[in-house]
Amino acid sequence: MERDAGNKASSAENALRVVQLMSQRGHLQVREVANALGVADSTAHRLLTVCRRTGYVRQDSAGGPYLPGPVLHEIALATNSSTTLRAAAGELAKGAAAELDETVSIAILEGRQCRFVESFEGTRPMRVPSLLGLLFPAHATSAGRAILARFDAPELERRFPTKLLERRTHRTITEWSAFLSELDRTRKRGWAIEFEETEPGIASVSRVLVDSAGAPKAAICVTVPMTRLSTAREALPIANVLSAVAAKVQSRLFSSSDPRSTASPDA
């Protein structure tokens, strides 16, 4: 019994060391973990498999590197500063939902997927339900595109090595060249839009949220029935609201990440 307990403790410690390595290096290979922990390749592979199964790491393609998983993203959202992304954005997203009377959500990127980690509904009888916890292909969502548009070509190709894009509806962009063109339009415009690419009858508009270094952290997204949003021109008022909200969120994040700052971010 004592030996079993010792083995379990050792395995748990090694798994935590794998998570620590991932947080420090951003990507890992089996051999790299084996060398760092002083274990066999088979043991390193087993540890990475456990971490992948529990969401701490992910592997986007067979034989590819292991990358930070959704659980690490969630931990980062909860602990990356005294004012977390969720705390900084949640109140403002809720206010935007009240102002627009539409569903407003916060989404983060998980590899090639986009997960909604906050969502607030409007009050209209016909509205999009809360998206909290839902996962969609990032290329098909305006939230995912808002984030992906901030990446350079090598990073996009690393995330989409096969350049194959899942079709969610008959309107989903699935051609790589068309996808890149849409990301280019998003960069120039400053916000992303999609019409019925994730769900029939639904459109969305999103704006990226960046950290103090300009790196994309998340996106704020407004999801609307197509009966109220069917053209880019109709999306402009929503995009303007999102731009104002994003500026406030980023002000709070930048202020909280600066230890010299003691003033209220809304002052």
Summary, kept brief:
The protein is built from 9 helices and 8 strands. It has helices at residues 2-25, 30-37, 41-53, 70-79, 85-100, 142-148, 153-159, 176-189, 232-257; strands spanning 57-59, 66-68, 103-110, 113-120, 135-137, 192-195, 202-210, 216-225. A hairpin with a 6-residue loop joins strand 6 (192-195) and strand 7.
Q: What do you see in this structure?
A:
The protein is an alpha+beta fold. The protein has 9 helices and 8 strands. The strands form 2 sheets. Strands 5-4-3-8-7-6 form a 6-stranded antiparallel beta sheet, sandwiched between helices. The protein has a two-stranded antiparallel ribbon with strand order 1-2. Strand 6 and strand 7 form a beta hairpin. Helix 1 crosses helix 3 and helix 2 crosses helix 3. It is globular. The N and C termini lie far apart (60 Å). The N terminus and C terminus are likely disordered.
Key phrases:
267 residues, alpha+beta, 18% strand, disordered N terminus, disordered C terminus
